[in-house]
């Protein structure tokens, strides 16, 4: 009995000592494992923190790009670099009507169900409600958006002419914020952190980026429309976009804790920039 009590005392002492040990090293091990496992923004632990671009990258990382097409910056379909904001004579923009509106004709694949169509239309409405852009069902127009449930979420940049595919895979891309993001590409907008002046507002952490994805962080030659940098733009990458080990790839400055991007739809500055680019409110 006496020896049993001694053994219990020793065991209790060991447990008490273990309880008082610092947990930092243990936590670091778990964090290290988590960092090794995470490779794209869709693996953020709290899905409520994901913005539209996080979700797009999560869907598109499993995408096999169709032959003859490239995806720049994760979701811009192209065979060459082009930005509608700087295209000569605004040739890449959708034309403005004499009534002051910009009509963007579209067709929607019959493969979508009713809820998908509602999500897509909500993405359109989020843009139309605050700008002179009006998405209209195509009748006979030669240039139009052909919205298809292809593999992944992607769009060409600006108006390319003829039937222009915009892919919103279902169910993966069925967020209205994701739809609005791709529609803004179709209107001619690049990602916010690709702006020519981005280095004043964010730091790109090159060492944390997957080596063969660094090209996605190149700056574009852009006319920034005399508009402030928009951390809340629906066009902004997430903090961990293309992260190799789970570390941040984009850090806002001077305040590193500013939230970047969002999932709900265009920000007020997004709508403002559309209005500036398309000269909304002024007839030609």
Automatic annotation (TrEMBL):
Transmembrane stretches, start-end:
none
Q: Which GO terms describe its biological process?
A: proteolysis
**Which Gene Ontology molecular-function terms are recorded?**
metalloendopeptidase activity; zinc ion binding
Q: Which CDD domains match?
A: ZnMc_hatching_enzyme (cd04283)
Looking up InterPro entries in the UniProt record yields: MetalloPept_cat_dom_sf, Peptidase_M12A, Peptidase_Metallo, ZnMP_hatching_enz
Signal sequence, start to end: 1-20
Keyword flag Signal: yes
Q: Which UniProt keywords apply?
A: Disulfide bond, Hydrolase, Metal-binding, Metalloprotease, Protease, Signal, Zinc
Enzyme Commission number, as recorded = 3.4.24.-
Q: List the cofactors.
A: Zn(2+)
The record's cofactor note says: Binds 1 zinc ion per subunit.
Start and end residues of each Peptidase M12A domain: 83-281
What PANTHER family does the database record attribute to this sequence? DISCOIDIN, CUB, EGF, LAMININ , AND ZINC METALLOPROTEASE DOMAIN CONTAINING (PTHR10127), METALLOENDOPEPTIDASE (PTHR10127:SF838)
Q: What is this protein called?
A: Metalloendopeptidase
Native source organism of the sequence: Larimichthys crocea (Large yellow croaker)
- Highest classification ranks of the organism: Eukaryota, Metazoa, Chordata, Craniata, Vertebrata
């Amino acid at each position: 009995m006496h020896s049993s009590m001694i053994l219990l005392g020793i065991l209790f002492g060991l447990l008490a000592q273990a309880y008082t040990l610092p947990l930092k090293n243990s936590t670091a091990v778990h964090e290290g494992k988590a960092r090794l496992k995470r490779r794209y923004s869709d693996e953020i632990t709290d899905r409520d923190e994901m913005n539209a671009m996080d979700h797009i990258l999560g869907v598109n990382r499993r995408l096999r790009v169709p032959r003859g097409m490239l995806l720049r910056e994760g979701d811009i379909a192209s065979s060459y670099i082009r930005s509608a904001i700087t295209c000569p004579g605004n040739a890449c923009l959708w034309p403005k009507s004499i009534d002051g509106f910009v009509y963007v004709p579209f067709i929607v694949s019959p493969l979508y169900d009713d809820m998908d169509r509602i999500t897509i239309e909500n993405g359109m409405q989020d843009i139309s409600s605050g700008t002179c852009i009006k998405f209209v069902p195509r009748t006979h127009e030669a240039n139009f958006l052909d919205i298809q449930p292809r593999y992944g979420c992607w769009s060409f940049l600006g108006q390319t002419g003829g039937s222009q595919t915009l892919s919103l895979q279902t169910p993966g891309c069925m967020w209205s914020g994701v739809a609005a993001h791709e529609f803004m590409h179709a209107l001619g907008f690049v990602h916010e952190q690709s702006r020519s002046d981005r280095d004043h507002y964010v730091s790109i952490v090159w060492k944390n980026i997957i080596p063969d994805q660094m090209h996605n962080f190149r700056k574009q030659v852009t006319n920034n429309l005399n508009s402030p940098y928009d951390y809340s733009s629906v066009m902004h990458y997430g903090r961990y976009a293309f992260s190799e080990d789970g570390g941040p790839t984009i850090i806002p400055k001077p305040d590193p804790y500013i939230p970047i991007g969002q999932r709900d739809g265009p920000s007020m500055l997004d709508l403002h920039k559309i209005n500036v680019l398309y000269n909304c409110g002024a007839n030609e």
